[in-house]
Structures are given as C-alpha cells and as structure tokens.
Design a protein that fits this description.
Elements (H helix, E strand, L loop, with lengths): L29 E3 L5 E3 H9 L18 E2 L1 H13 L17 H12 L5 H17 L1 H8 L3 H9 L9 H10 L6 H8 L2 H10 L5 H17 L3 H8 L2 H11 L6 H15 L5 H6 L2 H8 L5 H14 L3 H9 L3 H8 L5 H17 L1 H9 L2 H9 L5 H13 L14 H4 L6 H12 L6 H9 L14
Antiparallel strand pairs: 1-2, 1-3
Helix pairs in contact: 3-4, 4-5, 4-7, 6-7, 7-10, 8-10, 9-10, 10-13, 12-13, 13-16, 16-19, 18-19, 19-20, 19-22, 19-25, 21-22
Function: Functions as an E3 ubiquitin ligase.
Protein name: U-box domain-containing protein
InterPro entries: ARM-like, ARM-type_fold, ARM_PUB, PUB22/23/24-like, RING-Ubox_PUB, Ubox_domain, Znf_RING/FYVE/PHD
Amino acid sequence: MPGSLEPLDLGVQIPYHFRCPISLELMRDPVTVCTGQTYDRASIESWVATGNTTCPVTRSPLTDFTLIPNHTLRRLIQDWCVANRAFGIERIPTPKQPAEPTLVRSLLNQSSSESAPTHSRLSALRRLRGLARDSDKNRSLIASFNVREILLPIVFSNFASDSSELSHESLALLVLFPLAESECTAIASDLERIRYLSRLLFHASADVRVNSAALIEIVVAGTRSPEIRSEISGIDEIYDGVIDILKLPIAHPRALKIGIKALFALCLVKQTRHKAVLAGAPEILVDRLPDFEKCDAERALATIELLCRIPAGCEAFAAHALTVPLLVKIILKISDRATEYAAGALLSLCSESEGSQREAVAAGVLTQLLLLVQSDCTERAKRKAQMLLKLLRDSWPQQDSLGNSDDFACSEGVTESNYRIVDEWKRKEHSLTHDEVQVCDSSTEGSVFDFEGTSF
C-alpha cells in the first residue's frame, strides 16, 4: 500500500503512517478507536455518523465509540511538518479536545445554582462560552443539556439592573444557540424583556450591545406573529441602538454582521420602516456598504430596497450623493442576489426622482442594465432591469451618437447586440408610466421579497 500513495506536488511524500486510512490525507487530529486503529478525528466521526458500526480497517465491530487522542502520533506529525517546512508544509496546530459531557453538565449546574457565589457562576458561564466557540460539536453537546432553558431565566433575572454581569455573560452564551419558535414568542410577548434588551443596546460595553442586538434579531426572526413583531419594531430606541452598533469601528467586524441582521429583521415590518429612516439608517447603510462581506452586503442591499419602498426612505437615499453611483457599481459585481436588490432599489429611486435618473445615467446604469438583461441573473432581477430601462427611455442616447457615448464605448462587454437592444427599446411604443412602475414594484412585496424563507 505505501507504494500506491501518490507523492505531494511539493516534492515530498507524506509517510504512510501519518495518513488517515479513510481519507488518505495527513492526519490533523489522530484518534484511536477500540480496535487499536488510528484515524483522523473528522474522518472517523463522519464514518460513524453515516451509520457505520465497524472499524474501517479491521471490519471488527466498534463496541465502544470512545475516541482516544493519539498525542504521540500527533507530535510526530507536527515534528515532520516542521522538518519539511522548506517544501511549503505548515505545522498543523494542536487541536482543541472536544468537551466532555460530564464537564458540561457540571458547568451548567454550577452556573444555574442560585446558592453558588456569583464569581463561581460567572467562571462557569465563561468556560461554557469558550467551549461553545471552539467547535460546532461542543455547541451541539451543550445544547443537548437544555442550555436555553437554563440561560433564559438568568438573562432576564433582573430587569431593573442593567449592570448585572451575570445576566450579560448569560446573554453572550445564549446568542450562540438558535431558539425555538416557542421560546422566541415567549420573549417577544413580554415587552418588558424587549425593553430591557433595547436598553442594553446603549450599554457601555460594545460586546453587551452587540449581544443584545443579536438576541433581538433572533427573537424577531423567530416570531411569526405580525402583531408581536410590529410591537417590537415599534419601540423607538431599538432602531437608534442598532444603527449605533453599525457605526462601531471596523475593528468590530461582528458588530457589522449582527447590526445588519438586526436592522434587516426590523425593517421587514413595513409599518415601522419610517423609524429606521428617522434613526439614520439610509446614511449608515450607504457609508458602510463597502465594508460588508458578501452575505452581509446582500442583506444590506435588501434592507436598502425595503426602505426605498417608502417615500421617506426614497427621499433620504436620494439625498445621499453616493447612493445611486454605488448601487449602479454593484450591479453584476457581488452576486445575483445583490444585483437583484440593487436594481430594485434603483427602480424605486428613479421612479420617485428625476434627479436620481440623471445620476444613474451619468454613473453608467444603461450599460449595466444592458449587460444584466443578457446575463444569467435571476428573472426577477431582469424584470426590474427591464422596468428601469423603460423608465429611463428618454435618457437613451441617439442612434447616431451611440458609438461616441462614453457610457457604452467604455465597456468591453457592450457589442453590436447591445446596440440592437437599445434600438429595440427605443422602438417600443408602450412604456411603463410612473404609477405602473410603482404598482409592479409593490406587487412583489410578498413574492419576490419572500424574506421569511430566505437564508442568507
């Protein structure tokens, strides 16, 4: 078998006994099973998770599924990596061992014991949070002990005291686990709890503020009742607190992620979107848009489109000098989702403002839309692009000046077929009026924007 192993492209061969018998890859966390065979932890766990009950090498039954870390072999592998550093091989890090069920049970009992000293309970909660952050497996183990039922009473143990360190530490651990719909509804139905969380949005500690926003987002997203969600989003200071979190420096990347998730969840409630506008959401969304990672940028653009559906939102976004150029630039740049939301926001802005129309044309939107309608983007995005093209029909360059138009000549992607499309659009006798565009856009509220079932 050693002769059948292929050498690395780097010119060095991995010793046979360093390879996992299942994956044939260099083991990063070697563990030994009850048959005496050693495997990489991830490989053997996957083997057992798929229903196998025998040892992959010996085919003997696995009477005990305990995985014993092979520390000696792991150190030999690490030494070999260091010795072959010249070939570009990096030393594998020492893996963190999974949490033991007995330890987790003990820590949970200690943290929930009202008779235990506060410092002891805090220590247990912090250790649990460290274990939960280490791996998904640890989080699953901790969740199996009904951790949410233990933490929720601690988080909301004292509404009157916003400085309870025990409550804050419990909150930091709680947001690492998903809540059941019944748990979200129970929290959301008690406005005193929501007001408590909204006060924490202005806490001196950035971590407490972010964790509070995280729980608010979990609760709003996990509650199906429109009435309850409307009550939550109707609390004025929630929008101010969430937007302040988005203003935190880039050194707090988790703040950006949690902040936009919370703002997006709140803006799904149409009746209170004006509160987001009054709190300054349009300005901060445009200013921070370049700082978001892909999935967060998609969520930010979806939020922008939602806010552009109300007059106050359109007016606020149109007043920001960077809104239209940034939305035009994003088309076809980030993802299909981002393109769809950017096109929808532009459609709303240009439907409300001739100034936005002029800005969009100056920013090169005609070229972007032509490329979009010919791309493999979503049908919804193409429909929005087509409506926007019709809306901007008076801004199309004349046929005899097409070749001299900077908007078209500067793009390598625009060919003769684009010119034919331009001509086709200009020949159309029917075009959408302002009111028709608004009707078409608003009709997508429950279909195109089915955010409830969308996973970002």
